[in-house]
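F.,

This is the one I mentioned.
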């Protein structure tokens, strides 16, 4: 019998149920790798990119109130690539229906995923760039 094993991901610094602390406040000398532009994020509500540390697909999301958060876009259930659903304002897995809430540190809100998506530290540079640490 074939069983699914949850994918082990790097841990995050946020605690379960906490609110992300990312902010669109511009940083004069951001650290990390530029992965997109704030203008694209604000226009679409999200930006897909590749996590410079893991090489995994990732997604940055613009939150109500102007916050910016980013997460690994690999579902913690079976490793499928997730995407941001602008209508639901949730990150959705097309394979088994898992839903993650970016406003609650990618907490699982539906489906079989055992853990939230791994967060990726994000900074907004004074040049308007999005930088992933």
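My design for it:
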């Amino acid at each position: 019998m074939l069983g699914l094993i949850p994918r082990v991901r790097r841990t995050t610094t946020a605690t379960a149920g906490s609110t992300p602390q990312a902010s669109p406040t511009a940083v004069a000398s951001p650290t990390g790798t530029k992965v997109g532009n704030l203008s694209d994020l604000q226009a679409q509500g999200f930006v897909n990119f590749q996590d410079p540390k893991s090489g995994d697909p990732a997604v940055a999301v613009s939150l109500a109130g102007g916050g910016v958060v980013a997460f690994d876009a690999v579902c913690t259930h079976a490793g499928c690539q997730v995407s941001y659903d602008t209508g639901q304002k949730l990150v959705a897995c097309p394979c088994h229906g898992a839903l993650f809430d970016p406003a609650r540190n990618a907490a699982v809100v539906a489906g079989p995923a055992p853990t939230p998506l791994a967060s990726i530290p994000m900074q907004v540079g004074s040049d308007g760039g999005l930088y992933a640490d």
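The CA atoms of residues 90 and 102 lie 6 Å apart.

Talk soon.
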